[in-house]
Amino acid sequence: MAAATTTATALFLCWRALAAFAQKEKENLVRSLPASLCTWRVPPCEDDEYEIWQSLAKTLKGAGLTLWDSSKTSAQRSPYGSDVFPNGYLHTAAIRGTDKKQAGAVATLRHLWPTNASSHVVRTREGQDAVMRVVAIGHEGRDQLRIWRKLATAPHALISANHTLPLLQEFDLEHITFGIFPLVAQPMEDIYGRWAKNSVGDILDAVMQALEALAYIHSLGIAHRDAFKYNFLMQWHPESLLTGSVAVSRPRVYLIDFEVAVEFSGDSVPSERVCIGPPCIGSLSDPTRYSAPCIPEMCTGEPYDPFKLDVWQLGTSLLDFDSTLPPVQAVLQAMASLDPAERLTADDALCRLRAFLENVPPKSLLIPP
């Protein structure tokens, strides 16, 4: 009996020592990670992005998450060159097929070039590929995380007019919270002027979905404040100009990146639903470092309507799109107007585009921009 008690005590002490070591190792890991969202997005040194995520590999592996292969050039590749897991959020046009040399083909889905260091693709133990992104550190980003949770989980995530990319799960590492989101195929930024051969009809369908996305979050008192087209993703590009026919299936457009979003209470009056200054990320609060296009009010420090800012940002990023259709161009120009009184709301812009397109034969939109 005494021997058994001694053995049990020894095992307990060994377990406690291992637990203490693991906790110490975890604390050291957390201390080595960026202390703010800003420094995580843009590390001081170019090589730091690779080192940051590699330092997390062991911890994530223990949670059933395997990092995609990466390099110091920021390119990320699916493990062992395998195909991505079909998840309903990413596809490629049939005309592009599986040819490895073909832009937009299935093989290209195995690669990703994130726009900043705050996200990395992971593969779950079930084989699902997803994007893992740091969304809050300490108190920083918590308000935006609450907005993300509201829009990207049930019940709002089940509403068809809500185009916010769903939040699949959260992963906490001490005071750092990561969000895990579905991997989506294509950025809306590529919808014209690049490799994708989308028709005017394809592009306008995506634009209306983007406006529907904004109209929905605005109806809940939420303004995105970074609604340029690079923050919208698409399941695939229809490329009707290649097929020569109007697409049967339409890709869904998703809104991402709520790190500078704001929410107003339902009982607030319109005069209270205003912002002042550029939308900056927590520690990146110096207005002189805000590099995105600005409405005039941002520069003067005057209050502005953040809901119309969203529409202006989307409209501004579409100024290089020429639909060759005067009614459409008039709406796009009104969205991007520098005069606050002329700027449209998301709902107004959507209604005007829809009213025009309802009377236009889809075949007539099978034209290049």
Task: Tag the structure with descriptive keywords.
369 residues, Phosphorylase Kinase, domain 1, alpha+beta, 5-stranded antiparallel sheet, 13 strands, Transferase(Phosphotransferase), domain 1, globular
Overview of the structural elements:
By secondary structure, this protein is an alpha+beta fold. It folds into two domains: 34-182, Phosphorylase Kinase, domain 1 (2-Layer Sandwich), CATH 3.30.200; 186-365, Transferase(Phosphotransferase) domain 1 (Transferase(Phosphotransferase), domain 1, Orthogonal Bundle). The protein is 34% helix and 13% strand. The chain is built from ten helices and 13 strands. The strands form four sheets. Strands 1-5-6-8-7 form a five-stranded antiparallel sheet. A three-stranded antiparallel sheet has the order 2-3-4, with no helix packed on it. Strands 9-11-12 form a three-stranded antiparallel sheet, with helices on one face. A hairpin with a 4-residue loop joins strand 5 and strand 6. Helix 5 packs antiparallel against helix 10, helix 8 crosses helix 9 (326-335) and helix 9 (326-335) runs antiparallel to helix 10 (346-357). The longest helix has 31 residues, at 2-32. It is globular.
Q: Assign the CATH superfamily of the largest domain.
A: Transferase(Phosphotransferase) domain 1
Whole-angstrom Rg: 23 Å
Give the termini distance in whole angstroms: 85 Å
What structural category characterises the helix and strand content? alpha+beta
> What is the topology, as strand order, of the major beta sheet?
1-5-6-8-7
Average predicted local confidence, pLDDT: 87
CATH architecture of the largest domain: Orthogonal Bundle
